[in-house]
Each structure stands twice: as structure tokens, then as C-alpha cells.
Write a structure and sequence with these properties.
Elements (H helix, E strand, L loop, with lengths): L18 H46 L10 H13 L6 H31 L3 H10 L2 E2 L5 E2 L1
Antiparallel strand pairs: 1-2
Helix pairs in contact: 1-2, 1-3, 2-3
Amino acid sequence: EEEEEEEDIFGLDSLLPSKRKQEEEARKMAAMAARAEARAAAKAAALLDQRRDALIRAVEEAFGFYNVTTKNWTRVPVDMLVAKVHEVRAKFAPGQRDRLQKVYNRVKEQQTRRRQVAQQEAARDRSAFETAQSKYAGMDISIRKAVAG
């Protein structure tokens, strides 16, 4: 028993931190680490939100070139970009989703208009042969060489 309870003749035990101080220090360090992790998570979320917002602004700017008649080549890449971003719209915030949906709807309207204009122009510029050819292209021919609609 005497060996376990050695006297501290030089007072060195007072220099060593007590268990209570060590536990308190550990709690402080854990709290600081938790706050640092929370700040890092908040920064990461804010950065992700900013990146998504930048992507939406890029899509909106790209759509600005969509109607420029001198740059018809821009339509296909813009269509592809808008479609791809629209596929992953669930990852965006609700306000961002609304902005994406507006651009997507405008692109779809433009595509529909282009198809209608192309059909009207094609109907106007076709010869009688081309009209008959498109009419008979969808028909079936039976074994007896009869045409069926």
C-alpha cells in the first residue's frame, strides 16, 4: 500500500492535469470539432447551391442564343443541355426547379414551332410525286400486290 500512495515530495502531481481537467478538455475539443464539421457542411451545401445556380444561369444564357437565326447550329446543343439538366432537376431547390421548368417549356415550344413550320414549308414546296410518295409510304402491300390503307 505504501508503494501505491507515494508522496509527491516535489509537487509534480500538481503540474499534471487532473482527470476532470482532461475530460473537460476532451469535451471542449469534441465541441470545437463538431462546430467545425457543421461549418464545413454548411459551406459545402452553399457551394453546391451556388454551382447549381450557376448551371441554371448558364442554361438560361444558352437559351438566349436559341432564337438567333444566324446561329441555327446552337439549337441542338441547347436542346441537349436543357434536356440533360431537366433530367436531374430533382436535385435542385424548388425555386431553381421552377426556373429550369420555364426554360424547358420554352425549348419544347420552340421545337414544336420548328416542326410545324417545317411541315408547312414541306407541304408547300412538295411536288405531286412527293405527295403521292409520302401517301403510299405508309400503306401496306398485300401478297396479291394490292395496296391497303
